[in-house]
Design a protein that fits this description.
Number of domains: 1
Strand order of the largest sheet: 3-1-6-7-10-11-12-13-14
Radius of gyration: 18 Å
CATH class: Alpha Beta
Largest sheet: 9 strands, mixed
Shape: globular
CATH architecture: 3-Layer(aba) Sandwich
Strand content: 15-25%
Number of strands: 14
Order of helices and strands: EEHEEEHEHEEEHEHHEEEHHHE
Structural class: alpha/beta
């Protein structure tokens, strides 16, 4: 009998912001807490994340290529690949080359298609990056766009109001035809209730749609999307089902916001992950997912 005791190793392709619990500063502690060995492939080095009024920025595209070449010479093996902020079409190509050279059929690929929010692209994003991201999601098993990114990927006009379940299921199904088996959409408004927000998910393998609804707290904390998708990734790597994974991720973000909300604190630094990381080792207290 062969005992399988190898620790799972995941490549995390995100930027590194020195101030703010975003990108790698959220990804690494969350996935490490969930028992994964995180191997960062940083896309950029920033003094603080881009929602601060000013920041320094170093593009690491060339270094990404050197790191990947070094990994190839060492014949390293990874079990999962998880991408977030990519700063240029050239970096998208680096990721596609990485997957071509390292990915095995059984490995997990998670793409958080970081493009924009509130109906607009982020600073530095362009229509060309949208096109490149459409190509990258074809290589993914799981994608986790917010509402804005969903519409950009689908090349549809952004809709700011509530969307009924039938239309939303249609959007998720259409995104899955790009390639990913699992599509998760965050920040979905709840009709006639501005104090609630929802996460929707579709699994093409079994044809089922899921929804988790939670309170919407009136505070903005950068990095919650990075933290959310990190918990999704860790949960799936641990063997959780899709509805359990989205439930765990949603509850974790809600716990993080509540733990941070009462502090005299600059929200730009993100939720206080260190206050709630231990919750990732605890079972879900109340299951809130529903089949739709």
């Amino acid at each position: 009998m062969i005992i399988q005791n190898q620790q799972k190793r995941i490549v995390a392709v995100h930027d590194l912001s020195c101030i703010g619990r975003v990108s790698l500063m959220a990804v690494v502690p969350i996935l490490t807490t969930m028992g994964l060995q995180v191997c960062p492939l940083p896309t950029a080095l920033l003094s603080c994340h881009t929602q601060f009024p000013e920041y320094t920025f170093v593009d690491l595209t060339d270094e990404m290529k050197r790191i990947v070449e070094n990994w190839k010479r060492q014949r390293l093996h990874f079990h999962a690949f998880y991408t977030g902020y990519l700063g240029s079409p050239e970096q998208v190509q680096v990721v596609k080359d990485l997957l071509h050279d390292f990915k095995h059929e059984e490995d997990l690929v998670v793409v958080d298609p970081v493009l924009g929010d509130n109906g607009s692209l982020y600073k530095g994003m362009s229509p060309q990056m949208v096109e490149e991201m459409r190509e990258l999601v074809r290589h993914a098993n799981v994608i986790s766009p917010n509402m804005t990114e969903m519409f950009f990927l689908l090349d549809e006009q952004y809709r700011s109001g509530t969307i009924d379940d039938r239309d939303l299921k249609s959007y998720l199904h259409e995104l899955s035809t790009f390639g990913p088996e699992i599509v998760i959409v965050t920040s979905v408004p709840v009709e006639d209730n501005p104090h609630m927000t929802s996460v929707y998910a579709y699994n093409r393998i079994d044809g089922r749609y899921w929804k988790v609804t939670c309170p919407f707290l009136p505070a903005h904390y950068p990095g919650t999307g990075d933290a959310f998708t990190s918990v999704i990734t860790g949960s799936l790597m641990q063997g959780d089902s899709l509805p359990v994974a989205i439930d765990r991720a949603t509850q974790f973000i809600l716990q993080g916001i509540r733990a941070t909300f009462g502090y005299d604190y600059n929200n730009m630094e993100g939720i206080m992950l260190e206050k709630v990381l231990h919750n990732l080792d605890s079972p879900i207290q109340v299951s809130t997912y529903e089949l739709i």
